[in-house]
Every structure is written in structure tokens, then in C-alpha cells.
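Handout for the seminar on molecular recognition.
Each group receives one record of this type.
Step one: identify the two inputs.
Step two: read the structure output and locate the region that could contact adenosine-5'-diphosphate.
Step three: write two sentences on what you found, then compare them with the reference statements printed after the record.
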Amino acid sequence: MDNKDLIWEKFLSIIKKRINSVGYDTWFSEAYLYSLSDEAVIVVPTITHKKHLEEKYMDIIEDIFNSITGTNFIIKLVLENEIEKKEIKLNDDLIDEEVGVPLVSYKKTNLNPDYTFENFVVGESNRFAQATALAVAESPGKMYNPLFIYGNSGLGKTHLMHAIGNYIIKTTNKRVLYTNTDDFVTEFLGLNRSFNKGNNLEKVAAFKDKYNNIDVLIIDDIQYLGNAPKSQEEFFHTFNKLFDNKKQIIISSDNSPDDLKNLEDRLKTRFNCGLKVNIFPPDNELRKKILKNKIANMNFESSISEDVIDYIANTCQSDVRNLTGALTRVCAYNTVFYQDVITLDLAIEALKGTIHNATNTTNDIVKIQRVVANYYNVTVEDLKSKRRVSTIAFPRHIAIYLSRLLTDESLIRIGMEFGGRDHTTVMSSIKKIDKDIKSNKQLAEIIEEIKKKLE
Ligand code: ADP
Ligand code: MG
């Protein structure tokens, strides 16, 4: 390890103690010291990291850095693609300091304390959204206002918004209010109804007060505002007042502002003037990471085999809600058929029938299995079994071949549906039938016949 690495290691060990762990993981765990000459060049992963570190952490970075090196370095943050090369040797000299975080909570926030940055698992698909959310949590009302988080249902928008709120009430004495759009609309319409009866000036004042006297407004699922023109008007005024007073506003939606239906243009313009971040469906790696994280936090007695994690991650691709729902289902199933180690067979059984909805794909493997089994007078269980007699193995090859031909499923997924077979086994079945068809006219006809039955 060279000197530069040692300095960086020391730097990390100190800053780790001076800031909280989420801040450390988000801003520093992937950064590295690239070079040291007149300036210290630190490489960071995204532009959000760069901006936020410059804005919020520069003093502490310089302070620690210079105390380690005994030199007044100018710190330069760069992205991977901006690197320049320079290096220097230095002596080390370590100073350690204590950390302190103010702890003040506030009255009714509607925040769910279970949704935090600590238990939000980060991967490629949500890294930008998470970093931006934490930047806002650390500097509310400063940089990204409003913050607009959008993406499909079940990807973690609500979780991230609560995490921002929880972070702010823990570290500042700002007043935070979380509301979802439906509640805002219901509350506002209720107000109008009693207003028409002529007796609620107090209630109106209380409503206005509530929204005007906060420092941070978190409003979830803003797409529902499209259905409520009167509430839109009220929200527009609320938004402007908060915004003009530099209060932080955080909004979520299933679509980007421009694609929101029935939303007035003046609101779209407001939403567009801050930062918009898109959150994407998790890739396989993130799905597995989330499952493992959830398992670790569940203190579940049985252990869960790696195939099961693979299986769930492969079958529940569309969103995190379904993914963790599937895990819960498997665990619940195991409390009935108790096993020390949850096996793939049990997981497949537990998720039977639910996977269809969960993945939202055109998966017809189950149907193909049924039709092929029928045609050859064997059972679906036979097709999934390990039995190798030709009267079963041959129909199995055909069912696998048709699953590949007629669905969009991956080899891995097909293997899973056929009793947890390896993808190379799946591939060899497909190759075998492919080859046989070419030399065996009768087989080609049989396949056509089965295809017709599937239509
Ligand atoms: P959305 O608001 O986008 O529909 P939610 O925030 O309600 O989605 O997320 C659905 C569920 O998935 C919640 O239980 C949430 O805690 C969980 N979840 C989503 N993303 C993550 C993540 N990256 N790490 C851990 N849990 C997550
Ligand atoms: Mg939500």
C-alpha cells in the first residue's frame, strides 16, 4: 500500500467517526484519493456527490485532511472521467475528534419511523435517488427544491421520503410534515363542505396554519391531485408560500411532472424548477441484496438457502414490494411446514399462483407444462421431478423447449420452474429438441400440434 492509500485510509477512519453512518456510506465509501501534489484530488462517483460534498462537507474534509498530512492542501473533487495525474509523498500525523448530533424531535409529522436511510438498500437503479434524497435531508431548503422523485409503484419512493423526514427531525429542530395527496385532498374538501354550512373559519385557519408553519413538506403520490381541481388551486398557494420562504418541498409521483395528467401547467412548471430524480426497477443484484438485508433483519429461525434467494429474485422482478412480499410469504409458509432450512421446493410451492401476478410477464410455463403433461399422459410433477426414464424425460425436454420458444423467460427462470434445474441443463434440452426436429418430421408435427393446443 502506498502513502496515498494510507492517508486515505486514515482520512476515512476519522471521518467515519465524525459523521453518521449513512452519510459516511453514501458520500465516502466509494470515493478514493486519486493523487496528492499541490492539491489533493478525490474521485467521487456521481455529480450529486461532487456538488453535495463541495457544498456541505468541504470544511470537514479539508480540516481532517490537513490535520493528517500537516499540510494545507487544496481539495479537488472530480468524477472518474475528469482525472488528471499528479502525485507526492507525505508524512502522517493523526488527530482524532469527537462527534455530536443534535437530537430534537417535533410534534405530529406523520412520519413512519421504520423507513430510514439505514434500511434502504442502495444499488445501480436507485443510487442517484438515494444520494439526492440524503443531500436534501442534510441541507433542507438549500440545493434541490423542490425535490421530485418519480417512478413506478413499489420502488421505494415513499420509503425514501420518510427517510428524509426522519433524518431531518433527528438532526435539526425543523418542523416536518408528511402527507399523501389523498389526505390533503380529503382534508381540503372536508373543509369546503363545512364551510358551505357556514361555520368553520377556525378550521380553515387551522388548515392554513398547519401547512404554512412547517419547514419541510413531504407530499406523496401527487398524481392524484389531477382528479381534484379545487385542491390543486389550494396546493398551488401552499406550494408558493413555502417555496418563497425557502422551505423544502419533496414530492413523489408515478410519472415525471410533464407526464402527469390533468395537472395545471403552472404546477408542472413549479415541479420542474427543482431537481427531478427517477427511480428504476431493481436489477438482480439489488434484488438479492434487499432480500438478504430483509432476512438479516427478520431474526427468522430457519435458514434460507441461496437457491431460494435466487429464485425469488428471479421471479419477482418488477418491484420491491412484490419481492419482499414473496419472501414474507415463503417464511409464513414455512411456519406451517416447518423446515430448518427453507428449500427451493418449499419456496416454489409457497409462491405457486402468486408469481404470475408478481412478475407481470407473459409467463405461460405453467400452462405449457400442463398441456405437455396431458399430451404425454404424465403429470406436471413428473416434469418437474428428477426422474430420468425416457417416458418422462422426453416430454420434459419438449416442455422446456416450448417454454423457451413461446415465453420471454430466461433460462434460469425456466430451470426454476422445472424443479430447480440448472440453466445449462435447460439449454441442453432445448438443443436436443432443436436438433431432433430437423431430422424427425413426426416430432416436428407433434410440436405443431401441441402449439395449437396452447393457443
Ligand atoms: P413506492 O412508494 O415507490 O410505491 P415504497 O416506498 O412503498 O414504494 O416501497 C415498497 C416497499 O419496498 C416498502 O416496504 C419499502 O420499505 C421497500 N423498499 C423499496 N425499496 C427498498 C430498498 N431499496 N431497500 C429496502 N427496502 C425497500
Ligand atoms: Mg408510495
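Reference statements: The chain has four domains: 3-82, 108-278, 284-351, 365-454. Residues 85-106, 357-362 have pLDDT under 50 and may be disordered.
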